Amino acid sequence: MTGDGMGPPPGPAQEQLLTLTVDEHDDAVVLTLTGEVDGLTAARLRDAVTWALAELDGRVLVLDLTAVGFLGAPGLRLLFDTAALAAMVPGYRTLRVVVDRNRPVPGPLEITGLDKVLALYHEVSDALAG
Questions:
Q1: Where does the UniProt annotation place the signal sequence (predicted)?
Q2: What is the mean pLDDT of each run of 10 residues along the chain (130 residues)?
């Protein structure tokens, strides 16, 4: 989380499966995920995404999944729902998702067809540049 107390509420201290970090820029909110996105962690991620969408104020939302080691069906559904929600945010410009070519995230995105729905990037810097 951000050091200034802003950002979505952290999950329970004992949860070690998913870490969420928020980095706010003038033109973007970057939500970085580390760990696993599954049935146990999807609700926390949904809360963080909902918060980030409410905070955009015309900025880009970048979801950095490069450190995600597992992306299960609840995470895939969340990405699909996030794309739909983001399209309804007033002043919304775009949703950008960053994935590492060598991690387990791109495969499920391709199998489900989400790679055709989401704007995918391989580096956060590229997603920020658009």
A1: none
A2: 52 68 94 93 91 86 94 93 79 80 86 91 93
Residue with token string 């962690």: 41
Four-point Cα dihedral 50, 37, 113, 77, nearest 10 = -50
Measured distance CA(126)–CA(96) in Å, rounded: 10
Domain 18-129 belongs to what topology?
Answer: Transcription Regulator spoIIAA (3.30.750)
Nearest-10 crossing angle of helices 73-86, 42-55: 10
Using alpha carbons, select from 112, 120, 102 the residue that is nearest to residue 75.
Answer: 112
What is the distance between the alpha carbons of residues 109 and 105, in angstroms, rounded to a whole number?
A: 7
